[in-house]
Amino acid sequence: MSTEPESTDGGEPETTGGGEPETTGGGEPETTGGGEPESTGGGEPETRGAETQGADVSEAAAELAAQRIERERIERRKAERAGPVEAGGKLSGTAADLLAAVRAVESGAKPAATVFEEPPPRRPAPEPVRRQQPLADSSPAAPEAQLVAAVGLVLGEGGAPETLAAQAAAALGEGADDLLRSDPWQLLRVAGVRPEQADGFARALLGAESGPDDDRRGRAVTVWLLEQAALAGHTALEMPALVAALAQRAVPDPDAAVQSALAEGDALAFQDGLEEPDEREDGEEGEEDEERPVRVLVGLERYALAEESLADGLARLINSVPKEDGPAEEWERAATAAGGSAAELIRAVAGHGLVLHTGGEASRAEAAVLVDAARGMGLRVWAATHGPLGRQRFSALVRDDSGIATVTGLLSGAEGPGRDREGALDLDLLVVLDAPQLDVETAALLTESLPDGARLVLAGDPSVLWSVGPGRVFADLLAARRCPQVASRRPDPGPLGELVSGVGAGELLQVNASDKEVVIVPVRDAGEAVHRTVQLVADSVPRAIGVPAEQTVVVTPGHGGAAGTRALNAALKERLNPGPGRFGGFDPGDRIAYSPAPGRTVPGQVVGADAEGLRLTCAGAPVVVPKEQVEQCVRHGWALTAHQAVGGRWPAVVVVLPGDAAQALSRPWVYTAFGRAERHLSVVHGVEQALPRAVAEVAAKPRTTRLPLLLTAQETAAG
User: Fold this and answer.
1) Band of the pLDDT at 245, cuts 50, 70, 90?
2) Residue 96, C-beta contacts closer than 8 angstroms, at least 6 positions apart
3) Are 233 and 467 in contact (CB under 8 A)?
4) Are strands 602-610 and 591-594 parallel, antiparallel or unpaired?
5) How far is Cα 230 from Cα 244, in angstroms, rounded to an integer?
6) Which of residues 151 and 52 earns the better pLDDT score?
7) What was the pLDDT predicted at 66?
């Protein structure tokens, strides 16, 4: 590595809060490091302003269509649910109390609710969403003005901001005003509202009737904690962790609060066997009392159903025999011609319905070889990337780029092959790049959408940050070892490849960057970090490296603080595109990050504005953001968080590490941030030894998921 030689005028020390969690417009937490969500943007920038074959469908409309399919899937799964069943294994303590509560529900002592369930049978694929169908009408209907006004009155009586009326009406549905009067803690269903705020609202409405021991409060806080856990990547929480979190939120009887939430159907509980009891010889005493170790998990219904559906769909692929869509000798000829780990990938795909492919950026070339070979055999092949930047990169690697879509576009029908008469995707092989970014709901929709006999390849770099949404699908599948895994032996080239590979192995290497591929810029404080970042983007990198400012992206740990995305974007706008911000804080030419939905970030540029809203261009496609959504959905985009940047790559990247970011750093975060650079990486370094320590010692934060045990149960049933 080399050190940037230019001097700086420094700046006064500033106190920052870059590592502190914040709430964004989309309702996602902006915590950093360890694989947790940083923003609504989450993944690689993703947009689709026009369909690949002519119809004018925006990314926002495609996203809404995918959400509609998800809602229909959940309703269909709920309708298919069987009654509660006994879960094998004996329980004691809290688990026994929970099971007793469940039995009380089943006997009619409490309102009926399904608590423990068997995985329901796989439902049919969702109804086709064909490209010729208009998607504009697929968005959920906005709440009626009369309902919003009624909710606003209730909010005003309770001292809550009436600006939350539309959100509350949408979240609670018809009768939201009456529901809030009878149960003020339902305000926690609105994104961004915290328990202490809901407590104040309840006191204003209920007076003396309000208290921390109110059963309604316990249920609402239980659901809120599960929603916060989902934002942090968990699909469920272990009972002890949930009980402890409720106690921290001043719930006097956490066990009763959980049982009440289960009885009312606000959450589901599961008990998973952890291991088989030790075998005993015949006649040995105590055999009857042998207990199988279990863990009790509690989760929200939508993620529980998605994870069960995903496990079912994956088992179908793993246990199925792929279609006889090409003689074995054709597959072998293609493998022989490819050579290396690409040959291993082709041979694995030839005989299996599900294959995992791991590797860095260079490994995409092996997936491209597979796509070309399969197309050469006459198969209907599609590849899907996390977003348009990934789609553009992969398009450059294949002979024919007409069969490449984004995951969102594929599921919504805005892109891809369309659906067959049964509603399944009309293809033989699907290769999904950027697989670590799949959350459980998206992965479930993908697997359910594949026809019987199709092949699925999940490819990606297991060292990057995990998905913004709940789950760790790719990591869970790798750990389960239920299907072939092909590891690429193709290294990423040059000093940048060497540096990033070392980070993935837990070591911060000193690489030989003779052409300034990697530059370290030491700073003393956040003010100097902002100054040096602007200097690098506007002057140093264009002059010394030859990469213009519009092809350089800044990556920083969080949105807040003196060196977060807000501060950096303000400074970069002032230098690169000054203006009064006459269009809701934006001017033509501003770089932006547009979030059509939580977890999606679209990079683009402001074109202008009119009565319809703010006009953007994103990945070459026009996008119009209604003016009432601009504040919630659009940010300036010269500087991004690592979660917003994951999956994308730029000619030059400036990674900003202010001193207060030390606690936010982890190996996956550093690996992801450094790996966004193609030609040049500048590191504005103010964390001293915290950087090598994070690379060596701080792994991804664990996520609680049920997928590994569900896959094991599927394997046992198949055996």
Assistant:
1) very high
2) none
3) yes
4) antiparallel
5) 17
6) 151
7) 60
- Residue whose C-alpha is closest to residue 248's, from 222, 214, 215, 278: 222
* Cα–Cα distance for residue pair 86/65, rounded to 1 Å: 38
Exposure string for 274-286, b = 16+ CB within 10 A, e = fewer: eeeeeeeeeeeee
Tell me how crowded residue 163 is: count the other CB atoms within 10 A of its CB. 9
**143-155 tens-digit pLDDT:** 788 999 999 999 9
**Beta partners for residue 246, in sequence order:** none
- 292 Cβ partners below 8 Å, 6+ apart? 88, 89, 90, 273, 274, 275, 276, 277
pTM score of the predicted model: 0.81
Q: What are the beta bridge partners of residue 604? A: 592
For residues 561 and 16, the answer to whether their CB atoms sit within 8 Å is yes
Q: How far apart are the first and last CA of the chain?
A: 54
Nearest of 212, 175, 169 to residue 190 by alpha carbon: 169
Q: Percentage of the chain surpassing pLDDT 70? A: 77
β-pairing verdict for 518-522 and 591-594: unpaired
Whether 229 contacts 256, CB under 8 Å: no
Residue 209's pLDDT is 85
Q: Counting beta carbons within 10 angstroms of the beta carbon of residue 111, is it exposed (0 to 12), middle (13 to 18) or buried (19 or more)?
A: exposed
Q: What's the rounded Cα separation, in Å, for the pair 13 and 11?
A: 6
- Crossing angle, helix 215-231 and helix 195-206, to 10 degrees? 160
47/464 Cα distance (integer angstroms): 21
In the numeric block, the tokens 């994103």 are attached to 618
Residue 325 is predicted with a pLDDT of 64
271: left (phi over 0), alpha (psi -120 to 50) or beta: beta
Tell me the per-residue pLDDT of 625-662, one tens digit each, with 9 for 90 and over.
998 889 889 999 999 999 999 989 999 999 999 999 99
How far apart CA 555 and CA 678 sit, in angstroms, is 14
The pLDDT assigned to 62 comes to: 60
- Looking at residue 151, its amino acid is V
- The label of the residue with tokens 């069960």 reads 308
3-class secondary structure per residue, 597-619: CCCCEEEEEEEEEECCEEEEEEC
Residue type, 646: V
Distance in angstroms (rounded) separating the CA atoms of residues 37 and 30: 6
Contact in structure between 335 and 347 (CB atoms under 8 Å): yes
pLDDT digits (tens, 9 = 90+) for 248-296: 999 999 999 999 999 999 999 998 776 554 444 444 554 544 566 788 9
Which residues does 395 contact at the CB level (< 8 Å), separation at least 6? Answer: 401, 404
At 130, the pLDDT band (50, 70, 90 cuts) reads: very low
